[in-house]
Amino acid sequence: MKTGKKVKVKYGSLKSPIKLGGISAIHCFIIEKSKRVVEIQSLQKALGYDGKSELWLLNLLITLSKFEEVPEKILQAYNHPKIIEISNSTLEPIKLLIVDYKIFQATLILLVKAKNDGLLSASQIKYAKNAGLILKQINKTSLKKIINQASGLSLLKDRNKAYIQKLVCEKHSDDSLLWIEHLPNYFFKKIMKLEGLSWEAIEKTPERIIDILLLLFHIHIPQELHQKMASQKPKRIYQKRYNPPKKQVFLELENYLIDLISLIDQSAGDCFIFEQLLRRKYPARTWIEKTKTSHSSTMALSAFNKVLKKIIQ
């Protein structure tokens, strides 16, 4: 085995592994570029291997490749795993070998198929049974979402969405704005990309995200949708471990989100062009005071867009 490059951990720790019924805990992390990974030794243990060799799973897959094709990408992932370091207050940092979560999931499927095809020995069948047990549990949601929750990323998203809603509601007493915390993450991600922000950044500099949310859900929102959001308040969410919460966004709101995403795509990520498209399709609500409308709907522009705006006007 030749280890790959060392990468940094953004989310996750040894104290927050994936815990599934009847399976040993699996350590997971989110590293740079938002890649989800799992730690090799803990996943080997989850499959039922009791030894300490970090090559066990690789050797098992090489053996299987003699009878059935194992994608080279999977073999290379275990043969050249990346390394992460976990800080330890009293000792040297702990080095862990990791593989991408998709590689891990593909490995589980390979083991189950090998068992069904009769390619495993009597002593190896238990590994495939554990692989099947893991697959059965993660397929109820998705391994990506499980890692998001175990690593703490989901908690960060929920906390920051609640924080942004609080700040938005402090600016305007509008019951429809209580839905902001419940907007889907994919929509938040889209408008964050438009503003050049991240989940971490909106906590430190929330002003830009607040401005655009007021623009979309207080100023330019269709009147009927605004009234329904104000009268039909979202319910409190209760979520079981690794199970996604029940969807609260109703059809009219979902259609509005789809329209907004379409406008963002049409604008090619340019804030000024997006605002012009938004104004054309969803004019500002007439009952809002003109002073508030002009102040809240003005978005910060780049030097280039300021010049472009003057030319258009």
Fold and architecture overview:
This protein is an alpha+beta fold and 313 residues long. The chain has helices spanning 40-47, 56-64, 72-79, 101-116, 125-138, 143-151, 153-171, 185-195, 201-204, 207-219, 223-231, 251-266, 271-281, 290-296, 303-312, and strands at residues 9-11, 28-31, 35-39, 82-86, 94-100. It has a 5-stranded antiparallel beta sheet with strand order 1-2-3-5-4. Strand 2 and strand 3 form a beta hairpin. Helix 7 (153-171) crosses helix 10 (207-219) and helix 12 packs across helix 13. The longest helix has 19 residues, at 153-171. The termini are far apart.
- The termini sit apart by 64 Å
Radius of gyration: 25 Å
Q: If helices are DSSP runs of H or I spanning 4 or more residues, what is the number of helices?
A: 15
Order of strands, widest sheet: 1-2-3-5-4
Sheet having the most strands: 5 strands, antiparallel
**Order of secondary-structure elements:** EEEHHHEEHHHHHHHHHHHH
Sequence stretches where pLDDT stays below 50 over 5 or more residues: 289-300
Shape: elongated
Structural class, from helix and strand content?
A: alpha+beta
> Strand portion, in percent?
5-15%
Mean pLDDT equals: 87
Helix content: 40-55%
Quick one: how many beta strands? 5
